[in-house]
Amino acid sequence: MWSTRARLAAAYAGLLFATLAAFCAAVYFARGASAYQDLGQRAVRAADQVIRAMTTVEKSGKRLTTRDSTLQQREGRRDSVWVFTVSPLTEMRNTLEPLPGYFLVLDAQRRLLYSSFAVRQLPTDDQDDLQQIGIDLNPGGPAAVVPLPRDTVLGGRMLLVARSDTTLRPNISRVIAGVPTIDAEVPPQLLLGTLLVLAPLMLLLSVGVAYVLAGNTFKPIDQLITEVEAITDGRSLHRRVPADEADEELSRLAETLNRMIGRLQTSFGALRRFTADASHELKTPLTVVRADVERAMHPNAGTHERMQALEEAMQEIARMSDLVDSLLTLARADEGRFDLHREPISLEPLVRDVFETALILGEDAGVTVSLPLVEDALVLGDSTRLRQLFLNLITNAIKYTPRGGHVEMTLSIRNNNEVGFAVRDTGVGIAAADLPHVFDRFWRADRARSRRIATAGTGSQGGGFGLGLAIAQWIAQAHGGSLTAQSRLGRGSIFTVLLPISTSESAAKVFIVS
Description:
By secondary structure, the protein is an alpha+beta fold. The protein has helices at residues 4-59, 90-96, 117-120, 124-136, 182-231, 248-297, 303-335, 347-365, 383-399, 468-478; strands spanning 69-73, 82-86, 102-106, 112-115, 144-147, 157-163, 174-180, 343-346, 368-375, 378-381, 406-414, 418-425, 482-487, 493-500, 510-512.
């Protein structure tokens, strides 16, 4: 397969050669037409020269011709064509004989009075053809091309024109002048032959020049390919491709590649962190399970100790099951293979159900939970996933709110046909540097903090692993909404979910809860 450089060089050379061929053809035909026009003008000048010579003699008082015609039959002519000939006087011969070229002088009856010396050198049949065609020509009319098949010197054709003048004697009607067409055909033939000789050389030269130009054009692209090859090993994603500001297209390509490499760097970094964090999260419970199983299998272990060890192992297995389920949910979400069972849902009953669960969780953690505002709204979504989304936010808020704190839930209609579910807490808050990472997987603002809430009974699939907010964000985005966070360290946090309201929504009802 040819390289792009070779294809461009071949295309450039082919285009140049086709252009050259078209130019040569145009020059050839234009040169031929111009040459025939020049021949016609030469023939007219030759006829005018003969007329001027005869006019000069006539004005001097001399007579050029007398009538002396005889009928003669051309020997060898099978059709027995009779032609009129006249014998020119000595004065006409003396006047016209020195003039060069091919011309005939006809009388008033279009009979031949005189033929030039050059015409008389032609074969007899060619002379007859010239005379017959010359008789049919009209003075000032179009020229005629006469084939001369028996002539081997003039190239086989002659261009004839007819001219006349009122100053001539009545018995001289016109002058027929001819010019061999070989004078017009030789220059185009020479031009064509020259071009045919030069064309291969020009083609080779154009191929070479095109190949060099294509090489210079693709040199920056080769450098770009080298840079990209050096980056794609996975360990050099911090590098960037240099952008050539002088070339707009290459600059745009370099910027696009740099943005892609930046996204790859982010993805690779997230993948490495994800793998490391998942391994860390699984390593600890597996170690605990192994220790509990070994303790239960010890020969000296009592029944109570064995049951305690097995109970702890079951708790860790449940935690690992929750972690695996959360990872599977995110993996399916990333691949777009997680189907949502969408249907019109009234959010007020759903939020009140979540509120009942939040009261229980808050009571266990020593945190008060309130629902001061609920504005009913109809959305198109999956009730199970929306409940999981709301519970994740409530669980996360209660988890990071100290005892005696307060968590507030609200459901209100916003502008642009959106409904907002907000969770406000008085917890420890999130530092400004950590706030952009709260939705990252396995991210926790305080990794050393002990887990204060069990996942059992909450419906949260990510509690304690740093996956809850990542799953919550995916659920919000899958419903065409968004999840945002606002927080200040030591002053609590606000997590807000915005969902589009269904077009079939009925009038909202406002309930104030004391």
